[in-house]
Amino acid sequence: MRWWSGLRRRLRAAREIYEGMFVAPYRSQIYREYLEQRDLFLLAGFSDLLGAPNPVAFYTLELYPELIEQFHQWHLRLGMEHPPEGGFRCC
Amino acid sequence: MLLAREVLFFGGKGGVGKTTLASAFALLAAERGQRTLLVSTDPAHSTGDILELSVGSEPREVLSRLWAVEIDPVQEADHYVADVKARIADTTPPRLMAEVERQIDIARVSPGAEEAALFERFTRIMEEAGDRYDRLIFDTAPLGHTLRLLSLPEQMATWMSGLIGRRKKVNALGRMWRRVAGAAAGDGSPPHDRVLAALEQRKARFERARTVLTDARRSAFVLVATPERLPLLEAEKAVGTLERYGIPVGAVFLNRVLPDEAAGEFFERRREREARYLDQATATFSGHTMHLIPLQETDVHGLAALRRIVATLPESERGALS
Predict the structure, then answer these.
(1) What is the pLDDT of residue B92?
(2) Reported confidence tier of residue B215, pLDDT bands at 50, 70, 90
(3) Is pLDDT above 70 for B184?
(4) Whether residue B6 has pLDDT greater than 90
(5) HEC string of A37-68?
(6) Does B74 touch chain A (CB under 8 A)?
(7) CB distance A57–B160 less than 8 Å?
(8) Could you tell me if B192 and B91 are in contact, meaning their C-beta atoms sit under 8 angstroms apart?
(9) Among B203, B192, B194, B191, which Cα is nearest to B164's?
(10) pTM score, two decimals?
(11) Strand B66-70 relative to strand B60-63: parallel, antiparallel, unpaired?
(12) Which helix (H) or strand (E) holds A16?
């Protein structure tokens, strides 16, 4: 059975090379795209906060928890321990 | 015949007799055996005064087969906000809840909030009417406001579609990301997206309202004016706006037309002027049915007075209902 485990090892290696070459860059691309679309979605739902008219502003109140959570993650990502003045008081 | 439709809206410049005519038609429908709901969205809320019955914010059967409700925008907005808060309570992290509630309260006092809440209730009434009532009669706020409200289903549904489309894209990408990243993708949207569900439910309701509003067999807008310059101008503008939004105009009522028995030099001079406005109205609304309602000796309030108004309606509108 030696040849069998050798084959498996080689297959695994081939798979890792394949993932490293094709899936990994693709993965980060998907993640970026995902984050971008999430931002765009919130932008569409809360355009009024940026001064652009939004006829459905009052119908998107359910989205606030998500908006505030993302705002919280954003200021942490920027290295700010506390949210900037004037924004959401998320923490 | 107007009452052949499920939904009728009465609108016109303030003070021309919208409430009177809406109540008269509601009374007529109820007395013809239709379960009728008379809805007042006019902040002046004179329905109760005309019927001489107490009307509140929940539908109440004020006469046999006639229900009435007065919608208060302030109360509707409060209801809506309380509803949203309850809906998000169990999915929102506790540390965020206070801030989320604060933001929602800010939105509550923003311009347009009450109009939006009014619209929310309006679509809900249309949705729930099916089993409970045969006829819905809306006595609407002065025109500009109402036309905006009626144009909302279209704008809203379009905007909502955009938002829903984006949301679906986000969810699809989230799923893809979790698939390629495996355990590395810790967070992400939950499998059942409540936000998407809420958005889709609202959009579907707006679309159903729009379907009824634009179907000439199911609903109609009735314009009320008096034979005077400004009310006629406003009605003319309204016809244009309604046509643009695809909302059928059922009829134009000219209220408080001088009756023949009003005689004397003063009335003759008024009648001459009125004749000119009537001609003008006939030309303006040539594509629509126009009815004249004579000026009454006394104010219209109470059921007896309302029945006198019903008696002045044209025979074609008073026939038996199928």
Answers:
(1) 85
(2) very high
(3) no
(4) yes
(5) HHHHHHHHHCHHHHCCCCCCHHHCHHHHHHHH
(6) no
(7) no
(8) no
(9) B203
(10) 0.82
(11) antiparallel
(12) helix A2-18
